[in-house]
Amino acid sequence: MTVRDPVTVTISEIVKPDRVQEFEEWLKGLNRVLREADGFIGVDVIRPREHAHPEYVTIIKFTDYDRLKRWQESPVRNEWVAKVSDLTVDDPEIQQTTGFEVWFTRPGGAGVTPPTPAYYKMVLLGIAAVYPLILASVFGLGPLLDSLPFVIELLISVTIISALLTYPVMPVLTRVLSFWLYPSSKRQRE
């Protein structure tokens, strides 16, 4: 990673079921504040499916590590983190990734951060994931989308492939091939 690579921070936190509405308000305020942060690209929130176990996943993107670090060390960010502690069950689980890494599920639990896989391994795994999806798209969707203009056909195919790559293909592949991607992680856990 260079200091100029885009950085994604994924924050997973379980909200107290009786405090969900307050958490939603907190999220809105945080989004407003984030939009003013230097280097901020965007934020996505994955809301819980189960009301009994309200786990929120917040994905924050910055242009580079330096700007993210400035945000993380800012008094404004610290104020917002302090405001949320009463609304959640435990400390949040936080993962920080750059560029291509975002598609790779790292092994381990809280407090365990294995090294980033070698770049060539990420590329090879990406090819292994993308190639069959493109073939399936060409041969499976091609006949169904033939009547559409090429750019629309391509947009639909890319959307489906991207969605499948993000979940379930890359998480499953990284879990199955974790022995190859993260060979030292297994030794560290033993």
CATH architecture of the largest domain: 2-Layer Sandwich
Query: Low-confidence spans: pLDDT under 50, at least 5 residues?
Result: 109-113, 185-190
Question: Helix coverage percent of residues?
Answer: 40-55%
How large is the radius of gyration? Answer: 19 Å
By DSSP, the count of extended strands is 4
What is the number of helical segments per DSSP (H or I, 4+ residues)? 7
Helix/strand/pairing category: alpha+beta
Q: Number of domains in the coordinates?
A: 2
CATH C-level class of the largest domain:
Alpha Beta
Task: Reconstruct the topology from this structure.
Layout: E1 7-14, H1 20-35, E2 40-46, E3 55-62, H2 65-72, H3 75-84, E4 93-98, H4 119-145, H5 150-176, H6 178-181, H7 183-189
Antiparallel strand pairs: 1-3, 1-4, 2-3
Helix pairs in contact: 1-3, 4-5
Question: What this model shows, in words?
Answer:
This protein is α+β, with helices and mostly antiparallel strands. It folds into two domains: 7-103, 2-Layer Sandwich (Alpha-Beta Plaits); 119-189, no CATH class. It is built from seven helices and four strands, in the order βαββααβαααα. The protein has helices at residues 20-35, 65-72, 75-84, 119-145, 150-176, 178-181, 183-189; strands at residues 7-14, 40-46, 55-62, 93-98. A four-stranded antiparallel beta sheet has the order 2-3-1-4. It is globular, with a radius of gyration of 19 Å. The two termini are 28 Å apart.
